[in-house]
Amino acid sequence: MTVLGVVTIGQSPRSDMFPELLQWLPSSVEVRERGALDSLSSAEIAALAPVPGDETLTTRLRDGSSVVIGRAGILVRLQAAIDILEAGGADVVLLVCTGDFPQFRHSRPLLLAGPLLTAGLTGLAGDSLVGVVCPLAEQEQQSYEKFAHLDQKIKVAWATPYQPGLAELESAARQLAVKGAQLLVLDCMGYTQEHRAAAAAASGLPVVLSRSAVARLTAELC
Of 103, 108, 142, 215, which sits most exposed with the smallest number of CB within 10 A? Predict the structure, then answer.
């Protein structure tokens, strides 16, 4: 049996994510979660808000609410979560955020959702114009930088996965289709299969779901 340690940039457990992730992983895999914001108070989390020049991230808390945080403030906590999972017997560790991160110290295979997604998308996209849906307006420039290897053959729109309803996502998907996108990617692990279906119906385009692509590639090591 493989023990998969999963690190979220928010709080564990991620009850909104794991029922879907598990369907793409071997049934023999045991998943153990840790969150960068586990045990933090509301005030401590608020202090992690992005500062100028920092990368903006959004994630879900244990109570179902969402929060916007800066990358710099959680790096030490992410490293600690990796260390704890490895010490507890994880055979593989997966960081379930598609943002960009520096190298972390690790002694077991460490998978980052961001590189898994971008590498897989590169192979799928070919020379197609890719429409990227990111969660926040503040992340638009980050998206252009993140997918710069596609020679700027991308268009970006935003729609948070952490609010009720699908109207915002459907609008973003339609905007990207009008701008000439031939393939959409939902660039956040918070997007669900319901989001994928809504974006596909609204745009008439194939849609890459981050959590599906990341989980399927992770399964190859499990």
Answer: 103
What's the chain's Rg over C-alpha atoms? 17
Q: Is 3 exposed, middle or buried (0-12, 13-18, 19+ CB in 10 A)?
A: middle
pTM of the full predicted structure?
0.94
Q: pLDDT tens digit string along 151-166?
A: 668 999 999 999 999 9
Cβ atoms within 10 A of the Cβ of 96, count?
26
Residue 152 burial (CB count, 10 A):
10
Asked if residue 161 lies in contact with residue 135, where contact means CB atoms within 8 angstroms, the answer is: yes
At position 46, the amino acid (one-letter code) is A
- What's the pLDDT tens digit per position in 183-215? 999 999 999 999 999 999 999 999 999 999 999
